[in-house]
Specification:
CATH architecture of one domain: 3-Layer(aba) Sandwich
CATH topology of one domain: Rossmann fold
Number of strands: 11
Helix content: 25-40%
Structural class: alpha/beta
Strand content: 15-25%
Order of helices and strands: HEHEHEHEEEHEHEHEEHHHE
Oligomer: single chain
Length: 274
């Protein structure tokens, strides 16, 4: 339900403003990828009436573009190699800069980190309002490429957003504190700054994370409509009873016409009643 809710918010905002809605499969971590997961995502989106613009982009096919961006940063001495393991850093609140000035022996497994200098990053979220973060104090030097040589999410999405001409992003508030880090990268790579809107993350009535075992969306072709209407209600819309007998296309047209970000509650979490 949480994924459907966030996707619907993004889709409605794009369509209500005459924008394009792009679909990207973020499959960088191939060893952890569940077989057939991407295909199931596409089928589910189609079943719920989503229509995306252009081809589906797979991040696993874009290593060359990420390497080029990393090379640009490395050539300006904005990165460094870090051989610290997760175990070595597990007691740290932020990366302490251990390898900033350390010489790493050739052949040593090492991540690539971005040098984060002191300074605040702030932006006005379209839902949450002004958000400000001292990235250096919050997380320290961020990883762009892991020790296992898998590119980090933060680098890949920044490169891909620019390549796809993205201007607006609507996503879950669990990524709110990640946004300033992306903005730092955008500036260093000379890429456009984007507009962000972070919808509250759905939680159980006790404020715990929404449990798939309790509230998983039943992917049944004969029942997407009531689930979609429930999502619209969570997004601050008030579907009339007449829509319970409408087609999927009709309820999307209704929701697009009613869409307004001001209906969405301000806050990081939104409780889902039993």
């Amino acid at each position: 339900m949480g994924s459907l809710y966030t996707a619907a918010a993004s889709y409605l905002d794009a369509r209500a403003h005459g924008g394009r809605w792009l679909l990207r499969i973020e499959d960088l971590d191939r060893p952890r990828e569940v077989a057939g997961a991407a295909e199931r995502i596409l089928r589910a989106l189609e079943m719920f009436g989503f229509e995306w613009d252009g081809p589906v982009v797979h991040q696993c096919d874009r290593s060359e573009q990420y390497d080029e961006a990393l090379r640009s940063l490395r050539d300006r001495n904005l990165t460094f190699a870090c051989c610290c393991s997760r175990l070595q850093l597990e007691d740290e609140q932020r990366y302490p800069g251990t390898c900033r000035s350390r010489t790493i022996l050739a052949g040593t497994p090492a991540a690539t980190r971005l040098r984060i200098e002191p300074g605040h990053v702030s932006f006005e979220d379209r839902i949450q309002g002004v958000f400000r973060q001292e990235v250096s104090a919050a997380v320290g030097d961020i990883i762009l490429k892991r020790r296992d040589q898998i590119f980090a999410y933060v680098l890949a999405v920044v490169v891909d957003d620019a390549a796809q001409g993205v201007t607006h992003i609507v996503r879950g508030a669990d990524l709110l504190d990640n946004t300033p880090r992306q903005m730092v990268l955008q500036r260093l790579l000379g890429l456009p700054q984007l507009r962000y809107a972070h919808v509250p993350v759905l939680t159980e009535p006790d404020d715990s994370k929404l449990a798939k075992s309790r509230r998983s969306v039943q992917l049944r072709a004969d029942s997407p409509l009531p689930q979609l209407l429930s999502i619209f209600s969570l997004l601050g819309l008030a579907p009339p009873d007449s829509l319970h007998f409408a087609s999927i296309a009709e309820i999307w047209r209704w929701a697009i016409g009613q869409w307004d970000l001001r209906y969405i509650p301000v806050g990081l979490n939104l409780r889902v009643s039993a």
